[in-house]
Amino acid sequence: MTRVSRIVRSSLFWLAVLYLAAGLAYALVTPVFEKPDEDGHYGYILYLREHHTLPPLHFLEGFASEYKQPPLYYFVASVLTGWLPDVAEPERLLATNPYMDSSVPGYREDNRNVFLHPPHVTPVALGARLVSLLFGLGTMVAAYYLALQLFPRQSLVPIATAAVVGFQPQFLYLATAVNNDAPIAFFGTLVILILMVRLQQGQFAHFAVSLGTVLGLASITKVSGLVFFPLAGLALLFIHRGFNRAFLRDGLVIVAVALLVGGWWYVRNTLLYGDPFSITTHTSVYGAPRPFGSRIQHDLLSIEHTFWANPSRTFVSQMWLDKVIIWWGRISLALLVLAPLFHYVSRFTSHALIVLLSWPITFLILLITYWTQQAAWAYGRLLFPAIAPIGLLLVLGWWYSFPPRWRCLPLTAGAGIV
Predict the structure, then answer these.
(1) What is the pLDDT of residue 31?
(2) Which residue, 104, 151, 218, is CA-closest to 396?
(3) The whole model's pTM is what?
(4) Which sequence spans correspond to the domains of the chain?
(5) Comparing C-alpha atoms, which of 91, 37, 89 is closest to residue 59?
């Protein structure tokens, strides 16, 4: 059997084909600028296409609202769509929907659309959505190989992990949006994949340079990519069994390469604006921070809702399908917590498990303690940098909660629901 034949026959190949087909439908069907903050991300791309330089670091409503973001996704999208024609001032085509927050009797208790739309999508907007789709595909494939590191003899766990990650409804929805959520999820998955390969298989050539490069790219994709650095440091402690010369050597190389790749944007912000992380610009639109814990239950429910469902730019009420996927997530989490009690857990390295758990826990803590206090809403999509560890952990809940001879059916059914 040739290499091409093996690829065509592999489950991952057909899963990728299905993902691209579904993603193309998501990209075409949803009206332009109706995914979270698309007008601002689109305006960033238009600025690069027109001026060939970075936009000023400030916040303005509408098409200039995302100038505060690191530039990598917008560079890639502007280059790949540079040959496409587009409307210079697309905001002139769109009027705001005055009934955005009004009910739709007999359907939902709200209205999805922010704008009133002409029957077309601009070529650059569609092209930028497809760029995000490719980053989403990369995330799904990397999630497969992440699971494969831990289950090299179990093909079902890696393919189920890839399916749960790639077809998680909100991730697929946002992986076909003009924004940087799919790219940061891709680089986050690459970081933990590199770390897990090193942890499970030992030293490999150019480990520190590879990890530093990906960390640097993540840092100029979204500011939350900086969170990957301490998480990578934790994994390095396990890899080198504590603080020692090897830890320091790898750490210095990783940081040096990352600074070389991504540090320039933060230096530029410091020199020009005195705001290296663009945090001041990012939070200037919001009022005074809320007291911690003032709405924690509400925030947790909002995070859960917008992590799994809510295919809209605004907060919309839940349909029955939304409730199905939310309860699937709750059941999967419960199975993960209870799995050790069932005595079906095989030997699983504690270091690998801690590394996996550290990603979603860290991002959830930051989301609850910082971002929900600074902004008006709690967005579950801010957990997407940890989407691959989350998907793998939820799959493990199904895998380890049943005796070995019964595992295939519940895991297949569980992933199939997603």
Answers:
(1) 83
(2) 151
(3) 0.91
(4) 11-91+134-417
(5) 37
